[in-house]
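Archive record
______________

***
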Amino acid sequence: MKINIFLPYKEDFNSRRASAVSISVKNNLKHSIFKKSISIFGNKNEDPMFYKNFIGVKKSRNIFKGKNNHIADVMCKHIKKAVNETQIIEIHNRPYIFHRVFKKLPKHNICIFFHNNPRDMNGSKSVKERILILKNAAKIYCVSEYIKNQFLVGIDMTHNNNIVVLYNGVDRLLKTPPAKKRDVIFIGRLVQEKGVHLYVDTVCEIAKNFPEWNFLLVGSSRLGSNNNSQFAKHLIKKFKNIGENAQFFGFLSQEEVFQKMKTSSIIVVPSIWPEPFGLVLIEAMSCGLAIITSEVGGIPEIIKNNGILLKKIDKNKLIKSLSKLIQSEDELKRYQKLSWSNFQLSAVNSSKSLDNHRKSLLK
């Protein structure tokens, strides 16, 4: 049996520049019982993770051909060479590529992973397109119940027997709760939908009240680059002007982020768009940070009662919640303990669940 994974062109399957999609694929691959049978097709890079499994696709010479179409076509050619071998195809986050691959290889088990809202994506925006996916997909994986429910909007529930929730997972790298500094941290892209402006505005208001605490800002407009947008540049300048206890770090590698997260006490995830999942939240739980976040999208499924969820988040609510948590040692320790003790979404569990679904397709 062979498992063929399609990664979108914009995904950089590289340890320094990997996004949530690439990280999830990497984590599932690491623990899979099918590891030796998995090939990942994606945009060619010089230092891919799991280089033995990664097939980097060079740009097409045809300037009119779509980049994702080209990667999908190269993958299909590889699959067609193995005439008598059972094949599973897994398409990540590109429903229009799912339709393209199904037309080329209709007899294979073709699955699709939704990491974002299907109703916002080409190939699954309409009810008609999503019903076609339900009809043709061997399995549809959604990163949260929220995403599954978005997929099923306008669809009779009798159609959903092959759609499942598969939560992302991360490896817990610590055996015991780590020692914490008086650090509050934001980690993520410096874009409006992530609510970074709410964090910066909050720190502007309260940093002077808590001089013994440091406020960290980690991220950039684009993954893998510190070439920031005007929106981000404005916020960075504003943040740097707060004072010595406001520290900006820009884009950091996964390892560097882990080191910051390990010693931080509180993480703020103030998203104003409906996050499909929020990988940074389970990374924070694996390190035992107290969490303040928005009650939007898939976040409540991940956090449950183990963090502070803010409805209709705004600056005033964030100022109040963060100040209260900083001032109460007992509350801070309680939320850190809840976070650490209730971490369940491990990469091992996620990979095992995915492998079980793969096994079911072979029966």
Remarks:
- The chain has two domains: 2-170+346-361, 183-341.
- The radius of gyration is 21 Å.
- The first strand starts at residue 2 and ends at 6.
